[in-house]
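Quick one, tokens below. Sequence please?
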């Protein structure tokens, strides 16, 4: 069964599903999307959507704490490399 046939079959189930089945399907889809690869690290390691969100949250906290370097400071520092 190809993707088109599967899609049509699943749509038939969804169109007649009760609330319980719809909640299960929604949870499966959300879980699948969280594990979708959305980026790659500089080392080439795949990063999932959930890992990406976690890294963004950590970075936001670092910025709020002032734990970063400005562009000017980075340029000055790089002159000594």
């Amino acid at each position: 069964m190809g993707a088109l046939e599967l899609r049509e079959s699943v749509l038939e189930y969804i169109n007649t599903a009760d609330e319980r089945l719809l909640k299960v399907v929604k949870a499966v889809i959300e879980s699948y999307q969280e594990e979708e690869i959305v980026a790659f690290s500089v080392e080439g390691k795949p990063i999932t959507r959930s890992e990406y969100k976690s890294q963004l949250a950590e970075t936001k906290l670092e910025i709020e704490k002032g734990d970063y370097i400005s562009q000017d400071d980075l340029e000055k520092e790089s002159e000594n490399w």
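The chain has two domains: 1-34, 38-81. The chain has a mean pLDDT of 93.
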